[in-house]
Amino acid sequence: MIDHLWLVPLGFVAGVLGSMIGLGGGIIVVPILTFFGFPPTLAASNSLFAAFSNAVASTFAYSRQKRIEYSLGLKLGLLSVPGTVLGAYVSSEVTPEIFKILFGFVLIASAVYIFLNKKIKTREKKISTQMMIFSAGASFFAGIISAFFGIGGGIIFVPLMVVGMGMAMKKAAPTSQLILLFASLSGVIVHTVLGHSDFLQAGLLASGSFAGGLVGARLSVDIKERFLQILVSVVIIAAAIKMFFDSISENIHLINN
After folding, report:
1. How many distinct structural domains can be found in the chain?
2. Which end of the chain is less enclosed by CB atoms within 10 A, N or C?
3. Where are the beta strands (DSSP E) in 127-233?
4. Do residues 141 and 156 touch, judged by C-beta distance below 8 A?
5. Burial label, 113 (beta-carbon count in 10 A; 0-12, 13-18, 19+)
6. Is residue 250 part of a domain?
7. What's the chain's average pLDDT?
8. How far apart are alpha carbons 201 and 144 in whole angstroms?
């Protein structure tokens, strides 16, 4: 257990950032676990435990601040569940090299969104039938990448609410955490049934992530986010480059052998 205590502060840092941005801490946790040699399915499974813990703490804190759109959050959360089942099953069929390449692209998309977030102008829009149909499909897809990569799916839900529905970021990030409750819990259950989880490691990550979720929700009220956005974007892009490099190196090694 002592060898894995570093997972607690990792979960805490990821929880703080994930709660404030609304994307979930998996974009921090998964690259670091992969860097230390964790297999993709184990990294995704452990990360989802942390994402669920973070979502519980964040949802509780944000509900007290009255910043959650419950009706929308419940609908999108339930729609993501079938996708998480598929994503968890597919994750066990993908090689580490392919996983790193795919996740690298997800990280870059996350970094671009975080960096450009302040430039996105929000304006409340009436949600049309077409948008709800599109949102249903997007939620299913978000569920797939949630369980596949272990990131919760916030990278889909937050832009969907901000850009597609005109929701203010101050409400989109909290509502995303409610959605992630469903996406991460269903992913955790399926990964556990499939035997992907290490409960000791997941528990340490989750404990740190829970505390981070409470802190992140509190800080999000009055912190100036721009510096944080730039810092997180740089870290994520660096992690993406590292994943691409590792995948290429592993493929060259296999070819040479």
Report:
1. 1
2. C
3. none
4. yes
5. buried
6. yes
7. 82
8. 23
